[in-house]
Each structure stands twice: as structure tokens, then as C-alpha cells.
Amino acid sequence: MKLINKILILAILTIFVSCSKKENRGRFNYPMIKSKISLTEEQASNFDEITKEYTQQAKQAWIDNADKTIARSTQKIIFAEQDAKIKEILNNEQYEIYFKEVNIERTGREKHNMTLIKEALQLDSLQAIKYDLVNTAFFTTLSDNHDNYHGKPEVYKTYFKEIDVSRKEALKKILTNEQYNNYLKLAEKYQLGKIED
């Protein structure tokens, strides 16, 4: 019995330690951005403090405003203030990388990846228009149902997979077999629909 209790306590402690070590990144993948800009220890600490503070402000702006247009405007101001603070702690080269990556995060890494896939597929002009229309419909549907999966990563993944089936069917109709197979490989490479840890 004592052995079982010790094992149980050890298991609970292991879970607790592993959960406390996991960095909660929120909506934007700041750990990934940090990994791309080679920060010193002091810069990393300052970066974390700044992003934590402004992430809280951006969340609060969303909560406080029933009108989402006003909330987005307020968040833009908050993001600009955050960027100014971040610029103070980075050199020019680091800031360029930060600014590029944070703007990809803000507009949606998934949309960015779909643009990279589009370029790789070398679509003709008509295919490119249809590809954009398919993705606009996909992201509009995803966005319109945001309240159903917000803060629920597993629900998001399930919902994404469900509507991605429709997107794939539509893309299959506009792409050649070779392009479609290449699309599937690129979708896996960019991990579409998967939330980065």
C-alpha cells in the first residue's frame, strides 16, 4: 500500500512539474518568435514581461468591448505600443525578424502558410483566383464560428478537420492531380490545422 501511495505521489508531482514548465503562449506563438531572434537572457526576460503585459491588455480590450470592431481598433493600438517597447530591447536585425513574425501571427499563420502553399503550387491565374475564393470561404466559416471553439484547442482541431474536408474537395476540383498531391504534402509540412506547442 505504501508503495502505491509513493508511486501516486510521484506521478502527481511529475504531472505538476511538467504542467508548470509548459509555457502558455496564448493566441500568438511568442516562444516560436523568440527562438527565431536569438535573445540574450536579459532580452528574453524583458520580452516575456512585455508580451505578458500587452497580451493581458489585448485580452481585456476584447472582453471589455461588445463591439468587436472597437475591440480590434483598441488591440491595434495596444500592439503598436507593445512593438515600440519590444523595439527598445532588440537590435535592428532582431526587431525586423520579430516584426515580420508577429505580424504573421496577428493576421494568422495559417493564412500565411496557405499563401506559401499557393506560391509553391505555381497556379495559373484562374486557379489562383479559385484557390483564394476557396480559402476565403474556409477562413470566413472558421472565423464566424470562433465562439464555439475559443479556448478549446481540441474542439478547434475537430472543427478545423470537419471544414477542411470541404476545402480539400473544392481544391481537388481546381487543381491538377499533381498539384493536389503536392498540396497535401505541403499542408502536412506546414501542419495546417494543428496548434503549435
Automatic annotation (TrEMBL):
Superkingdom, taxonomy of origin: Bacteria
PROSITE patterns listed in its UniProt record: PROKAR_LIPOPROTEIN
Identification of the protein by name: Lipoprotein
Organism: Bernardetia litoralis (strain ATCC 23117 / DSM 6794 / NBRC 15988 / NCIMB 1366 / Fx l1 / Sio-4)
Taxonomic lineage: Bacteria, Pseudomonadati, Bacteroidota, Cytophagia, Cytophagales
